[in-house]
Design brief:
The chain is mainly β. It is built from 3 helices and 32 strands. The strands form 7 sheets. Strands 21, 23, 24, 26, 27, 29, 30 and 32 form an 8-stranded mixed beta sheet that branches. The longest helix has 7 residues, at 177-183.
Length: 444
């Protein structure tokens, strides 16, 4: 709260009023006498622009250019009327139609330099500090050609909003009352401009800038800005004299997405196998594995450059500690064949199906889509369980990858984000012994 109150003597503006209060004191707050015109100049044409965060070296640049043209009316000031300035910023996420979806501070890993410039009548001014009676006194003069900066500093994010006070590293907040006096002869107007060159680390960019798969048309992040003036540098953040703008420069990071793997049984009824009655489910299971790259950025180019798509089928059996891989998979299942890749090759604990590009095309690619479909059939060995075993659960587990001349370029993730199966999917089948004939009754 600004508590600095001045007074002026009222002039006899209304002669005919019953009580014109001529020559009586009228109080006002110094801070309420200023108006802001806060503008984000980061966008070159002044319109909102959305651009992708681009890595430069090992970090992501984030530049700012914000000006605040301050005007004031013909009030009377005393020599003790100090004036201080602060510019704050936070990050705001936006969704479709430009609707705000939440604001947050700048994540740790964001840092850089900033500079303040002060102009009056088109000329740059810089402050000079001196000590008078143990107190810092600020005066202002025209800047030299070499350096137009009124203040500069280094800023490091701590997860909260950016707060930049127009200040000197050695002397603290800079009093702008001298600029106010100069501006009285130039339309009672002066401009403060802040330019910053920040950089975000990869984790900071991921934490601070929203991801988009559609070039920022669906989601983006913009800095917003808040300017404050106060007669006391300690009350800048709570000053009632403030201005707010949404930034013009929006940013997004590319959501590279992930390819996914899914495995489904064509008929669910095939998954419950009664060893003592194989009429409804005889142990043959038809499966379809889907390797989908449609959400992966650059998928078309990856498919074009790849030479091989590999599918690997393994088997797990449930025991007291959960599902564990079986040893020799051929003791439990046999691959009858697949639509495109034959019976695969047996490799101890798995069957491997290899789709090698021929004539520029993959056999399992689903037309011109970004998905691959691998349909195959397995036959369960229903004699694998001992006579005394009445119930056992198994999981058929499918993984896939895409490679280029032996170098793996992509490994999909589970389509349903299932725990324990990050890069695979499974279908569970059951072997059981169920007596469907009822309980036999002997005769007396």
């Amino acid at each position: 709260m600004n508590t600095h109150i001045n007074y002026v003597l009222r002039k006899d503006e209304v002669k005919d009023s019953l009580d014109s209060h001529e020559n009586t004191a009228s109080t006002y707050s110094v801070a309420t006498n200023f108006q802001h015109n806060l503008v984000d100049k980061t966008s070159a044409d002044g319109n909102t622009s959305i651009s992708q965060m681009a890595v430069k070296g090992t970090t992501y640049p984030l530049d700012m250019n914000v000006s605040d043209t301050i005007t004031f009316s013909e009030q009377e000031y005393t020599s003790s009327d100090a004036l201080y300035y602060q510019l704050d910023s936070s990050l705001v996420n936006y969704g479709k139609n430009g609707s705000a979806a939440g604001a947050h501070g700048y994540p740790t890993g964001t840092q850089g330099t900033y500079s303040f410039y002060v102009t009056v009548g088109g000329k740059y001014y810089v402050p000079h500090a001196s000590t008078v009676n143990g107190k810092t006194k600020w005066t202002w003069g025209e800047a030299t050609a070499e350096d137009h900066r009124a203040a500069t500093g280094v800023w490091t994010a701590d997860g909260t909003d950016m707060k930049l006070t127009l200040a000197d590293a050695g002397f603290g907040a800079i009093d702008l009352s001298g600029i106010r006096e100069i501006a009285k002869n130039h339309g009672s107007e002066f401009t403060i401009t802040m330019e910053a060159n920040l950089a975000m680390t990869e984790p900071a960019c991921q934490a601070g800038i929203i991801a988009s798969q559609n070039g920022g048309t669906d989601k983006y992040t913009k800095p917003n800005y808040r300017a404050y003036l106060s007669t006391n540098d300690e009350t800048l953040s709570t000053s009632s004299n403030s201005a707010y703008i949404d930034g013009k420069a929006g940013y997004y990071r590319m959501d590279v997405g992930s390819s996914t793997i899914a495995l489904e049984a064509s008929k669910k009824s095939q998954l419950g196998i009664n060893i003592d009655d194989l009429k409804s489910a005889d142990g043959e299971i038809a499966l379809v594995g889907t390797y989908d790259l449609s959400k992966l950025a650059g998928a078309e180019a990856m498919i074009s450059n790849a030479s091989t798509v590999t599918y690997t089928l393994s088997l797990q059996r449930r025991d007291k500690d959960g599902y564990v891989p079986v040893g020799d998979i051929s003791k439990y299942i046999t691959v009858f064949g697949s639509d495109k890749l034959g019976a695969g090759s047996l490799g101890g604990s798995s069957y491997v199906f290899t789709d090698t590009k021929a004539g520029g095309a993959f056999a399992t690619r689903d037309g011109n889509s970004l998905a691959f479909k691998h349909a195959f059939r397995v036959k369960v060995n229903t004699d694998v369980e001992t006579a005394g075993q009445t119930y056992a659960n198994y999981r058929l587990v499918l993984t896939a990858n895409m490679s280029d001349n032996g170098v793996i370029k992509d490994t999909p993730v589970n389509v349903s984000n299932l725990g324990g199966y990050k890069n695979s999917d499974y279908v569970t089948y059951t072997l059981a012994r169920i007596n469907t004939q009822g309980i036999p009754h002997g005769s007396n």
